[in-house]
Amino acid sequence: MISEEQIKHLAKLAKIELSSKEIKIFQKQLKKVFDYVEQLNSIKIKDKGKLQGICSEFREDEPKQSLRELRNELLRASYYKKGDYFEVPGIFDEN
C-alpha cells in the first residue's frame, strides 16, 4: 500500500493540502488503481505483433500556415490596423 508519507509528498507536488481523512481516502483509492495496473501488467499476450500494428499508423506531415503568415493575412484584410497591430476601440477612460 502507498504510505501516508508518499501521499503527503504527492499532495505537496500537486500543491494541495489534504486532511488526515483525505489522506486515508487517497491511500485506498490509489491502492485500487495500483492493484488494477498490476492486473493489467500480469496479462500474457501471445501475439504482440498484432498490437504493434494498431499503434504504428501516423498521419502524413503536411505543411500548414504559420501563425505569423495567418496574422499577416488578417492584417492585410483588416481596415482597422496600426502598423503590425489591429486597432480596436479603447476601453479605459483617459481622464
Q: How helical, in percent, are the residues?
A: 40-55%
Low-confidence stretches: none
Gross morphology is flat
Radius of gyration: 27 Å
Question: Do you know the CATH architecture of one domain?
Answer: Orthogonal Bundle
Largest sheet: 2 strands, antiparallel
Strand portion: under 5%
Give a written overview of the molecule.
The protein has 95 residues and is mainly α. It has a domain at 4-44: Histone, subunit A. The chain contains 4 helices and 2 strands, in the order ααααββ. It has helices at residues 4-14, 20-41, 48-55, 67-77; strands spanning 81-82, 85-86. The chain has a two-stranded antiparallel ribbon with strand order 1-2. A hairpin with a 2-residue loop joins strand 1 and strand 2 (85-86). The longest helix has 22 residues, at 20-41. The termini are far apart. 0% of the residues are buried.
